[in-house]
Amino acid sequence: MSSNGTDLTIGFVSSSVAVLLFGSNFVPLKKYDTGDGMFLQWVLCAAIWLIAVVVNLILHCPKFWPFAMVGGCIWATGNIAVVPIIKTIGLGLGILIWGSFNTLTGWASSRFGWFGMDAEEVAKPVLNYVGAGLSVVSAFIFLFIKSEIPNNMRSVDTTPLMTDHVINNTQDSCPDCSWVDKLSTTQQRTVGCSLAVISGILYGSTFVPIIYIKDHSKRNDSIYAGASQYGFLSGVLWAIATCCWLIANHDLSAVVSFPIITAGPGFIAAMWGVFIFKEIQGLHNYLLMIFAFFIILTGALCTAFSKI
Predict the structure, then answer these.
(1) What is the 3-state secondary structure (H, E, C) of 68-90?
(2) Rounded Cα gap, residues 144 and 6, in angstroms
(3) Contact 226, 95 (CB under 8 A)
(4) What pTM, to 2 d.p., does this model score?
(5) CB neighbours of 143 closer than 8 A, spacing ≥ 6?
(6) What is the pLDDT of residues 78-125, one digit of tens each?
(7) I need a labelling partner for 262 at 20 to 30 A (CA). Which of 43, 106, 300, 302 fits?
């Protein structure tokens, strides 16, 4: 197999692993009461940092550029909204929406060279445009899918061992509930969809500092000259899935990997939402979801073939 063929194989295999892991990443959150998500954010980032350290050691500790940490800040900002999104519109629908807007932002910044990055070229640009466009179309279809969030986040036995007599009857009936739990159904859907869109745009901007460093590492007059092409330790690593994504970026280029990896996890997450958590129900919602999946699949295939 030629070198180019080997790179493509590694890129697509890495993309597949990333899709599977990204689509299942937040499944554990469905089994626990995560409150407003701030403690979860700290634990999640700590776990990601540990994986990043291990990967960095495997790569013999290439020089670290602080600018890459900006990508981590962008990712963490978008990730703050994960718990409210899952609580309001569900795991499946949340990832589907933010994945689609992630696709648009990440693809466009790479394809057109935004933020000082080098514009990436593909062999068949029309197919690439069609693939990215279909991923965006799927996002708007997902907005019309209604999700039902079962109220089973808390343990069945919630009776405290000791209770105090309540003198003030006007006290909040649910003092431990987060602000998300107090929203009406309409407010939850509005907030959830809006946060998913914002998170998707932020997620799509996560790799900008890393790609910027990689692009400028090839220029002798740049301060990033000679920087590692595998700049993993950036604070943005999303454990193994993100490592696979960065490998796919290297072997396929971001303009190809973004539409595939950002759209694909939605399918995995939706399967969790349909068969395990029962978030999406009803023939109308099923038909919309299947139609959107076909659009995603077509878009991913168009994007993949645009590189060949």
Answers:
(1) HHHHHHHHHHHHCCHHHHHHHHC
(2) 41
(3) no
(4) 0.63
(5) 97, 193
(6) 888 888 888 888 877 787 788 778 878 888 888 888 888 888 888 888
(7) 43
